[in-house]
Description:
mainly alpha, single chain, 117 residues
Amino acid sequence: MSGKLLGLQRRLIKVERILTDFAKMREPVGCNCRESTVADEGNPDEFETEMNRRCPVHFFRRLGMIVHVQHIGRASAESAKLDALLKTYRAGQSPKERRLSRLRQVGLELKHRAEES
Length: 117
């Protein structure tokens, strides 16, 4: 029995790898999510603008890796504002909204794949 489970586990890992590679190759059309975003304490309004944009595909825009630029020796209202914005972004959406966003993305990928066939 354990041999069958081990074989099943290997096949599942292979399928997961294939699906992951497929998803990486196919970026949804119209997606404006980012791989990285700079959050500069000297200009929190720029980060706020990026944060408030919505992705037409995922609805919650992913900002990728956030590079937080801090200015040593300068505590200001701007740095407090940026800290609050980062906290808000990291809190993100509710788990239900995140699941819906992921389901929409998978649905779009499946629909696109069906159209190609």
